[in-house]
Amino acid sequence: MKYYSELAKMQCFTKIDLQKIVGNKNTTGSILKQYQKKNYIKQIKRNLYATVSLETDELIATRYKIATTITKDAYLSHHTAFEYYGCANQVFNTVYVSGKTRFTTFKFDDIDYKYLYPRLTVGIVKNPDGIRVTDMERTTLDSINDFEKIAGLEEVLQCLELIPYIEENKLLEYLKLYNKHFLYQKTGYILSQLKNPLRLSDNFFDKCKHHIGQSVRYLHKDFISTESSEVVFDKHWQLFVPKKLMMIVGVEN
User: Fold this and answer.
1) Which residues, other chains included, contact 111 with Cβ-Cβ below 8 Å and sequence gap of 6+?
2) How would you classify the pairing of strands 41-45 and 111-115?
3) Edge-to-edge strands of the sheet including 239-242?
4) What's the whole-model pTM score?
5) Gap between the Cα atoms of 18 and 49, Å rounded
6) pLDDT in the model for residue 12
7) How many other C-beta atoms can be found within 10 angstroms of the C-beta atom of residue 118?
8) Phi and psi of 247, rounded to 5°?
């Protein structure tokens, strides 16, 4: 129990972190084994541990804390960022993590911790609880850009409905850094369905429209094989979109 209080404050730690506390490299390994045997700590993955609460026998760290300690620069992104902000209808069993340092997807306590390569290096905030997470604008664009890899378009739309406010200047700044015609196209179309609740100006959509290019695209690649009666063409955004998805955000055809 000598080092427990310090480990409890850290919540998650590596062998090197413990070694700094102990001050002796030779005894660090034996302390790890001893504390695991007594259920003071649990091993999350190779060289990553979490402290167990003596009161509840549960981990002190949340899934979000664990995620942001997987690597030194790890942060919450995509649907997990929406969850952290309280803008998700459901909590997934997959935690999406981005950062400069890659890691292999792993499972702990029935939760998959999955690495997603970041398209941007900006738009990351560190909160008072120590959790690093993409800001709302970056979360929005990352999720729209990668919806086929994560929650799916319907879930992303439902998350977007729960956003109380979004800064359009930041959206435009990040869109410029993304530099993808298709993302301007998808973002313009999707956010136009939520223009009023998100308080987005006509100027924002004009700028998105200016960068969509000349290509006609499908909002989702699966829509290419969808029956024509289930798909409509949006001339303004040059996109084929499904009728039923428009109804999710309360838009009549």
Assistant:
1) 63, 93, 94, 95
2) unpaired
3) 217-218, 239-242, 231-234
4) 0.91
5) 10
6) 96
7) 19
8) -75, -25
